[in-house]
Amino acid sequence: MSAPSFWRRHEFSLLLAILCVVIATAVLDAQHNYVTDPANSGWQLLRQWSMLSLFALGAAVVIITGGIDLSTGSVIALSGTVCATIMLLLAPEALTTPNAPMPMWVAGTAIGGTIFVGFLIGSLHAWLITVVKLPPFVATLATLVGLRSLARALCESVTLAVNGGVGTQINVANQQFRYLANSVWIPAVLVVVLSVVLWLMLSRSVLGRHLYALGGNEQAARLSGIQTDNLKWVAYCISAILSSLSGILYVCDQTVAEPQTLGRGYELNAIAAAVVGGCSLQGGVGTVPGTLLGALFLRVVIDGVAKIIDTGADVFEGLIVGVVVVFAVTFSHNSATVSQRRGLFAGSLGGVTILNLTILAGVLTALLGIKFTQDRLNMDAVWLSALAMLSTITLLLIARQNWSPTTRRRAGIAWAVSTIVLVIGLDRAYPAVQTNAAIAAVQRLGGRVIQNDNGIVVDLTDSTVDDESFRRVTGKLDHLQPLGELRLTNTAVTDRTLRTLPKFKTLKAIDLHGTKVTPGGVVGLKRAFPEAAVTE
Amino acid sequence: MTEAARIRFSGVTKKFFAVTALDDVSFDVRLGELLALCGENGAGKSTLMKILSGVISDYDGTIELDGQPVRFTGTRDAERQGVSIIHQELNLVNDLTAAANIFLGRELTKLGIWLDDAAMRTQAAELFAQLDCAIRPDDLIRTLRIGDQQLVEIAKALALQARILIMDEPTSALTESEVARLYRIIAKLRERGVTIIYISHKMDEVFRLADRITVLRDGKVIQTLDRATTSPKDITRLMVGREINTAGFRTPQPAGEEVLRVEKLSLTWPGHARGWRLQNVSLSVRRGEVLGIAGLMGAGRTELLECLYGSSTDEPQGTINLRGMPVKFADPQAALQAGVAMVTEDRKRYGVIATMNVREHITLSSLDQSSIAGLIQFGREADAGHESIQQLRIKTAGGEAAINSLSGGNQQKCLIARALRTNPALLLLDDPTRGIDVGAKAEIYRLIDELCQQGLAIIITSSELPELLTVCDRIVVLCEGRMTGEFHRDAFSEAALMEAATGN
Questions:
Q1: Which of A37, A245, A435, B89 is the most buried (most CB within 10 A)?
Q2: Which chain A residues have a beta carbon less than 8 Å from that of B333?
């Protein structure tokens, strides 16, 4: 743990990364929430960050001792359920009516009891690991699976006993209790206080030094006169109790204890935050500030993507966490090994990886890219994604070549320049290409495209067009701007075609002479285009 | 030079960032000879052999095999051209059988899919027969003794049709009888025309085996000498660049009061044919005395020290009296509190914590002395670290230097400092000079003497008899867990000790 200067520390690079993400979000977000409404965005972020940090710190302590705690999510679920159960048993009426007073002693018992449950779970882990000698992975995997099940069973029997019917959740509607989580400052202050305590413990106390020694080399620590088994007990209890505290806060926040979904998958977010924050899964390395920043970084990235793409952000949360973990760990822990190893994309595995990343780039651009760029590009998602795949595969193929660093750098620059030129060029060319495609499509049907005072005229008079073939060209007609006149004289189109027309809002004249449209259809069309001249 | 050069190194240079590991190394290895490569730790022997065996492929200069320039891209490539290496730390998969290890990575198959176990077993059995050893192809590696495991490596090299065999300190973990067997096998290999490069610290075996001796120092070839025209003293001098006087490290002094008395100490060994690791061991140590524990591998040296330090896997029987009081240590912490400290044999596995720096290593066992109410006082801790660095003359860039930036000898001193900072009355040193170079060894001997004069009682074990003869006042010999002899300084003789250690 020789301490490098602050500027070269992991924490500093994380801080920089966080700043970059925040600035990028502020700029790219269409509503510019970070600029227009900093207080609200800040509070939101602070709340989510404190909730994540709370149990991420527990995961970090265990990881520093060289162990792993996979049970976090289930401990949160069980703790939340236990907390709600105690309140339901002691003061059922206070729980269901929002404005009823919650007796202090009930809330106190619920919180105290839940923390005690955390202590018991931590002790169980310690016993399984130090006495039964299970690997930490197995011991906490067992409780990950088991405790959620226990929470559901508990919830069902308690609701049956008190409410007279089996329920899969316990509602916590009491306003007084919910104040705990609704006010931002309670979780935040809790995290700050606990962080300071943990930071003092890890970096300043004998106990902390011993925890690092345990993680660095367990045998050596034991032979140096350190009680390694007791230390593990402490570490797993810290982790479980912090999870219990977050369980209570989540129940307050969500107004319901639902053991089936509460905290599901959070153990991995916790481990991810710790690892991004610089903890090594080999043990012996990690800090409290690093973990806090790791959690903040995760939250900022998730929040940023949510703000920029505007919808369905929670769908992408897992993807973001995954990508962030891979990049953060690659660039911080083993940047040396990556650069030394020759060729990230060599061999057959490298070939498949190129395919993998190309497809991923294409899919992600199609899903996200169009939302990022919004109205700034003319291109549609298909073009953009094809372009992304092309440029990705070119870059990776360049990386695969066994060239000298200079050639490699030149190829990289050439790639960057040509990609930018290609994107701008194609984006400029896109409208013209699409217009030509639309004209060609009209001509294939036997029609023509001309221009008059109304704008562009699509003249399909006497052509072979029918409902089906017209439907196929409507997408292309979008690109003929402004579409002023549509002539369908003496063709086989019916009312079905008329229903697709209202999206061409610029139409000034529609000629339906000699078609199979009904008077009813024409009335509807006239209603959609009150200004336009519709000829029957 | 009349004889053909099998291997020719010309201008081989290897730099690790700023550190030059090999500097313009040029010499020949002749066809069919045994060339011993000598040098202190860090002299560049291992780096050179890693280059020859293809582990390192990025270096300057050229290597010629039979006059053809070669540049191996990996160990596989080297093996294909007949160069095999047997590393000091053996490269075997513990949970596979001997036969499976021999053919690991190039298994014999039927139809290219199914393992042909029968063929591999037969071929492995043939190889073991050639080596005159009783290993069965189906034995799991973890059930074999170190010496036998090494033979599996040699068999692997034979299976690869190795024409050049590199052996890196092959005898460091062997018993006398295993060493004798290894010598016979080396003779056999030489009859088959295998050229051998033999790395060793031990002068007696170098002079017994080698045709020529090449001395490396600080990454440079100092000299290549014929065995017949040189002496161990010359080689040692060339290795360290100065004379090393191995005698006179011990200042005799009157022994003080008794610190430790062990009576009838026994330690069971469940599931083993012998049934015990230690049986009825009785000994005592006084203030200012160095007691040596001699014995071959598996004699119970380490186990004895573990019993005294409370770190043995099973609870020992018998009585341990520390300063007249019977004690029973549940764990090392209890031992340290009672005034017994230990430095372990396997520095890498049981001593060093790679993520910590020098200061943290030194103060780890005695943090209570530099803390108030459980909070470490950094100033006091730094002073403690600094004091130990001065006292033990630890060569380091400072207390904040990473432990892995230190040489093996200086890492060992840090661990000794850690033990000493607990103010012990009795210090247990388990093979403290294992894997450290000649100069550092002398420093450790001097340190042991100083500590004794300050009134510490020391128990030391070693796999090298001459070392015990140099530093001890008294030596107890163990053989298969039993005490088979006790010698005072005036009765020391290598022959007598060896006789006791082999149970004659």
A1: A245
A2: 225-227
pLDDT over 50 (residue B388):
yes
Cβ burial of B235 (10 Å; 0-12, 13-18, 19+) is buried
Mean of pLDDT values over B291-301: 85
Contact B355 A212 (CB under 8 A): yes
Which is nearest to B457 in space by CA: B473, B443, B476, B478?
Answer: B473
B interface with A, Cβ–Cβ < 8 A, is 309, 311, 331-333, 335-337, 342, 344, 349-357, 360, 364-365, 367-368, 371, 374-376, 400-402, 418, 422
A-to-B residue pairs, Cβ atoms closer than 8 angstroms = 88
Report pLDDT for A2.
Answer: 42
Q: Is A2 on the interface with B (CB under 8 A)?
A: yes
- Smallest Cβ–Cβ distance between B353 and the set A200, A204, A217 belongs to A217
Q: First and final CA of chain B: distance in angstroms? A: 48
- Percent above pLDDT 70 for chain B: 95
Q: pLDDT per residue over B229-256, tens digit each?
A: 888 888 877 877 655 555 566 777 777 8
HEC readout, B76-127: HHHHHCCEEEECCCCCCCCCCEHHHHHCCCCCCEECCCEECHHHHHHHHHHH
Q: What is the pTM of this model?
A: 0.77
Q: Alpha-carbon distance B75 to B91, whole Å? A: 12
CA distance B381 to chain A (A): 11
Residue pLDDT, tens place only, B74-105: 888 888 888 998 887 778 888 889 999 888 88
Q: B295 pLDDT band (50/70/90 cuts)?
A: confident
Q: Are A170 and A85 in contact (CB under 8 A)?
A: yes
With beta carbons less than 8 A apart as the criterion, state whether B365 and B427 touch: no
Q: How far apart are CA A103 and CA A358, in angstroms?
A: 60
Q: What is the DSSP letter of A365?
A: I
Q: What is the mean pLDDT of chain A?
A: 86
Helix (H) or strand (E) holding B60: strand B60-65
Residues in chain A with CB shorter than 8 Å from the CB of B335 are: 225
C-beta separation of B198 from B163 below 8 A: no
CA-based nearest residue to A4, from A400, A332, A490, A253: A332
C-alpha span between B445 and B249 (Å, rounded): 6
Chain B CA closest to residue A279? B355
Pairwise CB contact (< 8 Å): B418 & A223: no
pLDDT at B496 over 50: yes
What DSSP element (H or E) covers B327? strand B325-327
Judged against a pLDDT cut of 50, whether residue A504 lies above it is answered with yes
- B12 strand-pairing partners: B25
Q: Both ends of chain A: CA-CA distance in Å? A: 86
Mutation target to probe the A interface, by most A beta carbons within 10 A, among B17, B307, B355 is B355
Contact B354 A2 (CB under 8 A): no
Handedness of CA B258, B264, B268, B273 (dihedral sign): positive
Range A399-428 average pLDDT: 87
Q: What is the pLDDT of residues A19-31, one digit of tens each?
A: 999 998 888 777 7
Q: Which of residues 273-332 of A touch B (CB under 8 A)?
A: 280, 283-285
Question: Rounded CA gap, A84 and B172, in Å?
Answer: 65
Paired strand residues for B8:
B28, B64
Q: Which residues pair with B166 in a beta bridge?
A: B85, B197
Question: What is d(CA A402, CA B288) in angstroms, rounded to the nearest whole number?
Answer: 65
Q: Does position B1 have pLDDT exceeding 50, yes or no?
A: no
Decide if A215 contacts A285 (C-beta within 8 A): yes
Interface membership of A224 toward B (CB under 8 Å)? yes
